[in-house]
Write a structure and sequence with these properties.
With 506 residues, this protein is mostly beta strands. Among the domains are: 4-101, Cytochrome Bc1 Complex, Chain D, domain 2, CATH 1.10.760; 359-506, YVTN repeat-like/Quinoprotein amine dehydrogenase (Methylamine Dehydrogenase, Chain H), CATH 2.130.10. It contains seven helices and 33 strands. It has helices at 4-17, 28-39, 41-44, 66-75, 91-101, 113-119, 494-498, and strands at residues 121-122, 142-147, 152-157, 164-169, 179-180, 186-190, 195-200, 205-211, 215-221, 227-234, 237-242, 248-253, 264-270, 275-280, 285-290, 303-306, 313-316, 322-326, 332-337, 342-348, 359-363, 366-371, 378-383, 389-394, 402-403, 410-414, 424-428, 433-438, 446-451, 457-462, 467-473, 479-485, 488-493. The strands form eight sheets. It has a five-stranded antiparallel beta sheet with strand order 1-8-7-6-5. Strands 4-3-2-33 form a four-stranded antiparallel beta sheet. The longest helix has 14 residues, at 4-17.
Length: 506
């Protein structure tokens, strides 16, 4: 949590960083700095280093023209939390803000090994905490609930009466989904501002903390529980951590084969391959980094896989052989065979499919994946043998997440944008038809569904500061419990995550 004193200090630093001058100054730079602090700093960071929103530095805006940036400030951006300022700011003010964000800071922001090590805190040595849980609940049916409105995490018993076992403060703006150790005892979190936290779900204690970057996209945990890989927007690098203690082992600059520095858009563990997969946002490359039977502190190798476009979002099939990725402003997604490193198919998918949320199931004997869309009201179902679209299912509006479970015939999708943002729609996986529309709290945004380990109950977030988790009977669609929460976003069931349930993202 950030104190008021720290916030004040950061704002003071920002005034210097963006060019504000003492009392007499009414320079364009000072005016832009004032506008930035008033309208932008809360989401993009006082020093433009990123927070809830991305960094606003020239190196982070290489794929966005100044004209598009000014348009985004004026009109907002679909599928994100970026509001429109066209009715609040004048054209001159928007131009000055645009000029500011394309102005390099006096010093290039860095976050090297010295700073990472200085930030590291180990609260309990490996093996020092007893293994037995401090509660009677099923440790594999716990839910980890991120309460984004209050920057905290709740650990909830997934069985009736759904008791909150504990809450603890998180770093600011957790992102990318927590990662669980193979037996479900430990969970790892990453925040937008670069902090990585290890938490013991048996003893309900934070084990370690480290700040591995300035702006972090997400993390991956190796399937042997040895390494955590951190993918950063800023600096442009990957950081390898020891999963036992979170001690930093090495920094890997994200530089393409042509020598271009790049942000990391996502990192994943490809369990069957014994390797990490990392996508470069500003280069047409995906990296495969083997870790099985390797000491990554001493020897790390990168296999570069060339892509035809810049990857914005991607999904790995259950075999982890195929990578399906999308590129912004494209009307299709591409399928890459990781074994050969070659593209094998293009799939027409209009709008902006949220592939990171895709799930899989068997439809009429064939494996399919389904993706929601954050730009248009569609769920697209694709045959993973032929890579042909089986059906575009029309929904009430764009959404972020689709979720299911192998024990239920239904898939649930949220509608986060537009007049129906309070709706959740239920798709029959056997017919690919919408069979039910639920409104957990009319007028309030519903999002992110997650099932318990048995597939009997579906948990839905009411994404409001005075929100809740609403628990449904997955067979009858009746509400069985409402748990008040502070703007809950993701809810993650331990069993589903460690068993790689096809109904949730990995």
């Amino acid at each position: 949590m950030v104190s008021l004193r720290t916030t004040a200090a950061l704002l003071a630093t920002a005034a210097i960083a963006v060019g504000a001058t003492p009392a007499r100054a009414a320079t364009p730079a000072a005016a832009a700095g004032t506008l930035y602090r008033e309208h932008c700093a809360a989401c993009h960071g006082a020093r433009r280093l990123g927070d809830v929103g991305p960094p606003l530095l020239p190196g982070s805006l290489t794929r966005l023209s100044r004209a598009r940036a000014a348009q985004t400030i004026a009109r907002g951006r679909v599928g994100t939390g970026m509001p429109a300022f066209g009715h609040t700011l004048s054209a001159d003010q928007i131009r000055s803000l645009t000029a500011l964000i394309y102005t390099p800071p006096a010093r290039a922001p860095r976050w090297g090994m010295r700073r990472i090590r200085a930030s590291h805190r180990l609260y309990f040595a490996p093996g020092s905490l007893p293994a037995r849980p401090v509660y009677r609940a099923d440790p594999l049916n716990l839910f980890v609930v991120v309460e984004s409105g209050c920057h905290r995490v709740a650990i909830v018993d997934g069985d009736p009466p759904y008791t909150i076992l504990t809450r603890f403060p998180s770093h600011f703006s957790l992102h990318g989904g927590p990662k669980f150790s193979r037996h479900g005892r430990y969970v790892y979190f990453a925040s937008r501002d670069g902090w990585v936290t290890k938490y013991d779900l048996h003893r309900l204690k934070v084990v370690a903390d480290v700040r591995a970057g300035i702006n972090t996209r997400n993390i991956a945990l190796s399937s042997d529980d040895r390494y955590v890989l951190v993918g950063n927007y800023l600096p442009h690098d990957l950081v390898v951590l020891d999963a036992r203690t979170l001690e930093p082992l090495r920094i890997v600059p994200a530089v393409s084969e042509s020598g271009r520095s790049s942000r990391i858009s996502a990192v994943y563990d490809a369990r069957p391959r014994g390797a990490f997969i990392a996508a470069l946002k500003d280069a047409r490359e995906v990296w495969e980094i083997p870790y099985r039977d390797r000491d990554l502190a001493r020897h790390l190798s990168i296999r570069r896989i060339r892509l035809s476009a810049y990857p914005d979002d991607f999904f790995l099939d259950p075999s982890y052989r195929y990578l399906i990725y999308s590129a912004r402003s494209s009307d299709h997604v591409e399928v890459v065979d990781l074994d050969s490193g070659r593209a094998v198919a293009r799939i027409p998918m209009p709008g902006m499919p949220h592939l990171g949320s895709a799930i899989t199931w068997d439809y009429r004997g064939d494996p399919v994946f389904a993706s929601p869309n954050i730009k248009t009201g569609l769920v697209t179902v694709v045959d993973m043998r032929t890579w042909k679209v089986v059906r575009h299912i029309r929904t009430l509006g764009p959404g972020y997440f689709i979720r299911s479970h192998q024990a239920t015939p239904y898939a649930w999708v949220d509608i986060v944008f537009g007049p129906n943002r309070d709706a959740v729609q239920v798709i029959d996986k056997r017919t690919l038809k919408i069979v039910r529309t639920l409104r957990p709290e009319p007028g309030h945004t519903s999002m992110h569904i997650e099932f318990d380990r048995y597939g009997r109950h579906a948990w839905v977030s009411i994404w409001e500061r005075k929100g809740a988790v609403v628990i449904y009977d997955a067979r009858t669609f009746r509400v069985v419990k409402r748990i008040p929460m502070c703007k809950p976003v993701g809810k993650y069931n331990v069993y589903n995550k460690i068993t790689l349930s096809p109904g949730t993202s990995h």
